[in-house]
Amino acid sequence: MLTKQRRNVINFMVACVNEFANKFGLSEKEAFDYLHKYKGIAFIKDHYEVQHCLSLEDTIDDLVVVCKNHGGLLT
């Protein structure tokens, strides 16, 4: 059974992936694969406590930087 905290993290990840997909014209799967490959998913998981307090726009901007720092090319 999922804890409430774990459910919140998952829901936040889903929202971030969807917003990222919309911003860059990707499918949700493409966005997830990109974020996973370039450490964006790990960033969301590791920094949920701070990131969920920010706007989704700020979080997406942070994801762009994190992914770029790990070899991603989307800007």
Per DSSP E runs of 2 or more residues, the count of β-strands stands at 0
Low-confidence stretches: none
Q: What is the average of the pLDDT values?
A: 96
The secondary structure category is mainly alpha
The residue fraction in helices comes out at over 70%
H/E topology pattern: HHHHH
Strand content: under 5%
Shape: globular
Rg on CA atoms, Å: 12 Å
Integer count of domains: 1
Largest sheet: none
Measured distance between first and last alpha carbons: 38 Å
Q: Specify the number of helices.
A: 5
Account of the 3D structure:
The protein is built from five helices and no strands. With 75 residues, the protein is mainly α. It has one domain (4-69). The model has no long low-confidence stretch (mean pLDDT 96).
Using brief descriptors, characterize the structure shown.
75 residues; mainly alpha; globular
Question: Could you give a quick summary of the protein structure above?
Answer:
With 75 residues, the protein is an all-alpha fold.
